[in-house]
Amino acid sequence: KAAQKDGYDHYMLKEIFEQPKVVKDTLAPRLPMDQDDIVLDNITLTKEVLEKINKIYIVACGTASYTGLVGKYLIERVARIPVVAEVASEFRYRDPIMDENTLMIVVSQSGETADTLAALRLAKQAGAHVIGIVNVVGSTISRDADDVLYTLAGPEIAVASTKAYSAQLCAMYLLSIKIAMELGKLSKDAFIELRKELYLLPEKVSQVLSQVDDIKALADKYINSKNVFYIGRGLDFAVSMEGALKLKEIAYLHAEPYAAGELKHGPIALIEDNSLLVGLTAHEELYDKTVSNIKEVKARGANVLAIALEDNKDISKIADDVIYVPRTHWMFTSLLANIPQQIFAYYISVGLGHDVDKPRNLAKSVTVE
Ligand code: G6P
Q1: Which end of the chain has fewer CB atoms at under 10 Å, N or C?
Q2: Predicted confidence pLDDT, tens digits, the chain (369 residues)
Q3: How far is residue 258 from each of residues 25, 79, 84, measured CA to CA in Å?
C-alpha cells in the first residue's frame, strides 16, 4: 500500500500532487499545436445542432456539481447560451423542461452516480443531446451519454475528490471555449491566447503545490476553528462551495460557503470572535466587492484567511493570512484558487487524527438514490 501511495502518507495527498500531470494530460491532447482548434474526439454534436441549442443544463452531484457551477459561469459568459447548473437529486424530480434544442452536460468522476445517471436518462427521453464529462472509461454514464469528454485523471482512490475535480474543470474550460468558437463567439486569435494560458496551467499548479508547508502551517494555526465560512463572488463562489465541502468531508468541521453579497442578508449574524473566514478574491473583476465583504466580517471579530492572485498584495492589510496563487486568464482561476483549499482541508484532517482517505459515512461512488 505504501508503494501504491508513492511514499505519500495518504492517497489524497498523492492525488493532490498528481494534479500538474492530470491537468496536462486532460488539456494537451485536445490542444494540438498544429491546429488552431480544440480537438474533442468523442464529441459528435454538430455545429447545426449546436446552433439550435437554446438552453444548457449541467447536472451532477457533490464535487462534480461545483464543476457545473463553474461551467455555467463560463459558458454563459463566452457562448451566450443560458445555463442552469443543478444537483441531479433535485433536477430529476422536478419535471424539467427539455427538448431536442436542449443540451445536457453531466459531470461524474465514477460515471455511476445513480441520480446523475437518472438525470441523463430523462434528458435522453426528452430528445436532448447529452455530453458526459467522465473519468472512468467504460462506466455507465460514459456509455449512455451521446458524447463523452474524458477527464484523464487516472484512478482516484481517496474518497474526497481532488485531482478528478481539477480534471473536470479543465474539461469544462475546453468545452466552454469549443462551444463559443463553434458559435462564432470567440475569434481564432482569442483562442490562441487562451491556449497559451492553458499550456501554462500545469506549471502554475506546481507553483501552488510548492507552498504546501506554508499551507500546512495555516492548517495548524486554524485547526481549532469551530465555524468556517467560505465566501466569494462569481467564479470564486463556485470555488468556495468546493472548499467548504472538502473541510466538511474529511475534517468534519462545520463549514459553509456563501455568496459574499449574501452575507449581510443573514449569515453575518453567525460571525463571532474566532470564526474563520476563507475569503476568495481570485475573480478579479469582483475583487473590490469581495474585499469590502471581507472587511465587514473582519470588523466582527473573525479571523480571515484570503486566497488571492499573486500581485493583489494589498489584501494582506486586511486579512490575517493570505495564500497567493499565480495569475492566469480569468476563465481559469478556479483551478488554481481551489488547490490551497484541498491542502488546507487535508492537513486539518490529518491534524485532527481523522481517516483522511476513508472519511466516516461517505462512499466514493453513490449508486443508490
Ligand atoms: C460521492 C463522493 C463525492 C463525489 C460525488 C459524485 O458523494 O463522495 O466525492 O463528488 O459522489 O460522484 P461522481 O462519481 O458522480 O463524480
Answers
A1: N
A2: 656 899 999 999 999 999 999 999 999 999 999 999 999 988 999 899 999 999 999 999 999 999 999 999 999 999 999 999 999 999 999 999 999 999 999 999 999 999 999 999 999 999 999 999 999 999 999 999 999 999 999 999 999 999 999 999 999 999 999 999 999 999 999 999 999 999 999 999 999 999 999 999 999 999 999 899 999 999 999 999 999 999 999 999 999 999 999 999 998 899 988 899 999 999 999 999 999 999 999 999 999 999 999 999 899 999 999 999 999 999 999 999 999 999 999 999 999 999 999 999 999 989 888
A3: 33, 27, 19
The interface pTM score, or ipTM, of the predicted complex is 0.98
Orientation angle between helical segments 163-182 and 62-79, nearest 10 degrees: 20
Q: How far away, in angstroms, is 116 Cα from ligand 1 center?
A: 10
Nearest to 345 by CA among 2, 58, 10: 10
Instruction: Find all residues with CB under 8 Å of 348, minimum gap 6, and list them.
Output: 219, 222, 223, 247, 250, 251, 253
Q: Return the C-alpha cell found at 253.
A: 468541521
| Ligand 1 binding pocket mutation candidate from 69, 106, 242, 365 (most atoms within 8 A of CB) | 365
Please give the distance of CA 72 from its chain centroid, rounded to a whole number: 12
Cell numbers representing residue 103 in the block: 443540451
Distance CA 42, CA 111 (A): 16
Q: For this structure, is 55 an active site residue? A: no
Ligand 1 pocket check: which of 11, 59, 61 to mutate, most ligand atoms within 8 Å of Cβ? 61
Question: Do residues 244 and 272 lie in contact, with contact meaning Cβ atoms separated by under 8 Å?
Answer: no
List, chain by chain if needed, residues with CB within 6 Å of any ligand 1 atom.
61-64, 108-110, 113, 116, 159-161, 362-366
Task: Please tell me the distance between residue 366's alpha carbon and the centre of ligand 1 in angstroms.
Answer: 7
Residue 348 Cα to ligand 1 midpoint, Å, equals 21
- Distance between CA atoms of residues 241 and 112, nearest Å: 23
The one catalytic residue among 5, 21, 124, 364? 364
For residue 202, give the amino acid letter: P
Opening angle at CA 350, ends 332 and 256, nearest 5? 55
